[in-house]
UniProtKB/TrEMBL annotation:
Signal peptide: none annotated. PANTHER family: ENOYL-COA DELTA ISOMERASE 1, MITOCHONDRIAL, ENOYL-COA HYDRATASE-RELATED. Key enzyme of fatty acid beta-oxidation. Able to isomerize both 3-cis (3Z) and 3-trans (3E) double bonds into the 2-trans (2E) form in a range of enoyl-CoA species, with a preference for (3Z)-enoyl-CoAs over (3E)-enoyl-CoAs. The catalytic efficiency of this enzyme is not affected by the fatty acyl chain length. InterPro entries: ClpP/crotonase-like_dom_sf, Enoyl-CoA_hyd/isom_CS, Enoyl-CoA_hydra/iso. Belongs to the enoyl-CoA hydratase/isomerase family. Homotrimer. This is Enoyl-CoA delta isomerase 1, mitochondrial. Keywords: Acetylation, Fatty acid metabolism, Isomerase, Lipid metabolism, Mitochondrion, Transit peptide. It is an enzyme of class 5 (isomerase). One of its GO terms (molecular function) is delta(3)-delta(2)-enoyl-CoA isomerase activity.
Length: 305
């Protein structure tokens, strides 16, 4: 077992690991002893904010976000998230990802407002590059990506869900999803807008963005922001059922089709990436915008009292 932990320091093997005996080892061609797992092994790795559970049998990884209290997307969270998606992308066994939240009531509260409030230009630039990277990794992924939206998902949380191929939301009218940036006195960047337009069309996006609409679950389904509503307890199992349909499609055909649909939107950001960072930094560091963020945060905290 000690050797196993040395070989896979970041990996916790579940399933029948406890029963691994000497008989569970095989010798590689170079003579190294390697663990020999039964076909249905699951491997779970946990970072500070995420748990990634890979099922070698299905080729599906469940990525669970767990950054209390609300899975806000901080610089550290985004960095970890992009690294995890990159690792799965490079894992030939991984064909699909289900993205979900391990916290009650919230999928993700969107960008961490404290990363944009009272911070200098250098920090803001680094943060924005990490936001771009998260979206580029997810929207441009070759894997099948399913968002199991088991709670509210405003702004950056909605972007994350929209970047996936398919969205299943908990049928709870208390949960909402949408790009509500204007309510904070800020503006959804062009690639947030493009992602939404690609999902629900021009007119619905125009209304949603200007009004900062947060759709409750039934409205989100009606407008096409999510693809299915299911009872809250069934979100993850519905995501597994949905992904099995996608897995039945040959990867190369699905991937080329996905790229054909998404590449122009991705290329638009890639060719304006630095300019987008500069725009963000000069916008977010304006006194008037900082004041809007401060007022919004105060209101958020006052809701409790
Ligand atoms: C000319 C063009 C230039 C272009 C420039 C582009 C600029 C674009 C800039 C940015 C784009 C921004 C994208 C974003 O994602 S901004 C974030 C928007 N998010 C929200 O509005 C969500 C706010 N949160 C909520 O609505 C709720 O918290 C909730 C529904 C998610 C959960 O509700 P509940 O369970 O009741 O929890 P609380 O409200 O009590 O929150 C707990 C705790 O967490 C704090 N918090 C909540 N959300 C955030 C957040 N996004 N960032 C940081 N902190 C957050 C909240 O304040 C509470 O804190 P506490 O009082 O200290 O406990």
């Amino acid at each position: 077992m000690a050797t196993l932990l040395k070989l896979f320091p970041t990996c916790t093997w579940t399933g029948r690991l406890a029963h691994l005996s000497r008989k569970g080892w095989a010798q590689s061609r170079s003579g190294r002893l390697l663990p020999c797992f039964p076909a249905s092994q699951r491997c779970a790795s946990t970072t500070s904010y995420l748990t990634v559970e890979m099922d070698d049998n299905t080729g599906v990884a469940v990525v669970t976000m767990k950054s209390p209290p609300v899975n806000s997307l901080s610089l550290d969270f985004l960095t970890e998230f992009s690294i995890s998606i990159e690792k799965l992308e490079m894992d030939r066994k991984c064909r699909g990802v289900i993205l979900t939240s391990g916290l009650p009531k919230v999928f993700s509260a969107g960008l961490d407002i404290m990363e944009m409030y009272g911070k200098g230009p250098e920090h803001c630039a680094e943060f924005w590059r990490a936001v771009q990277e998260m979206w580029l990794k997810l929207y441009g992924s070759n894997m099948i990506t399913i968002a199991a939206v088991n709670g509210s998902s405003p702004a950056g949380g909605c972007l994350m869900a929209m970047a996936c191929d398919y969205r299943i939301m908990a049928d709870n009218p208390k949960y909402s999803i949408g790009l509500n940036e204007t309510l904070l006195g800020i503006v959804a960047p062009f690639w947030f807008k493009d992602t939404m337009m690609n999902t629900i069309g021009f007119r619905a996006t125009e209304l949603a963005l200007q009004l900062g609409l947060l759709h409750n679950a039934p409205n989100a389904l009606r407008v096409g922001l999510v693809d299915e509503l299911v009872p809250e307890k069934e979100v993850l199992s519905a995501a597994s059922t949905a992904i099995s349909k996608w897995l039945a499609i040959p990867d190369h055909a699905r991937q080329i089709t996905k790229s054909m649909m998404r590449k122009p939107t991705i290329d638009r950001l890639l060719s304006h990436r630095d300019q987008d960072i500069n725009n963000f930094v000069s916008f977010i560091t304006k006194d008037s915008i900082q004041k809007s963020l401060q007022v919004y945060m105060e209101r958020l905290k006052q809701r409790k009292t």
